[in-house]
What does this fold into?
Amino acid sequence: MEKTLVLIKPDAFDKHYSGDIIKRYEQEGFRIVAMKLLKMDERLASIHYAEHIGRPYYQDLVGFMTSGPLIAMVLEGENAIARVREINGKTNPAEAAEGTIRKQFAASGRRNAVHASDSPASAKREISIFFSECEIYDGTYEIMG
Ligand code: CDP
Ligand code: MG
It folds into this structure.
């Protein structure tokens, strides 16, 4: 079982797509093991997007990511990191495959609805930016009737 960090970005949140996006991940069999709503500030953006600092689009990316609330969550499942990236689709919706979240919900290569970790190392790093250990469910799923 793998865990990955997903963000529902401010564009998708603002357009009321959050429910549809969460539903899609659940339908694909992932479990939500952590979730919160927050507004990213510039400091948090600079930590989360550290590898993008200095790129030509960085300031606009930060402006977009801090422009409204977003939902952060940790999804758990087999091969979650690669599978969630695949379900999300390519960064630019114009290049994203049919049936992907970005194809369906993204407006542009910047305002692209979702973020997901791209490797086990990024997943570990990114999950710890948004969640403390006690905020991540790590128990069983035997729900009592
Ligand atoms: O999110 P993903 O891993 O698919 O793409 P990335 O190349 O790691 O870029 C991170 C985010 O920066 C993208 O999801 C876009 O929101 C934004 N970006 C942008 O605004 N303009 C670009 N030319 C490239 C990325
Ligand atoms: Mg990336």
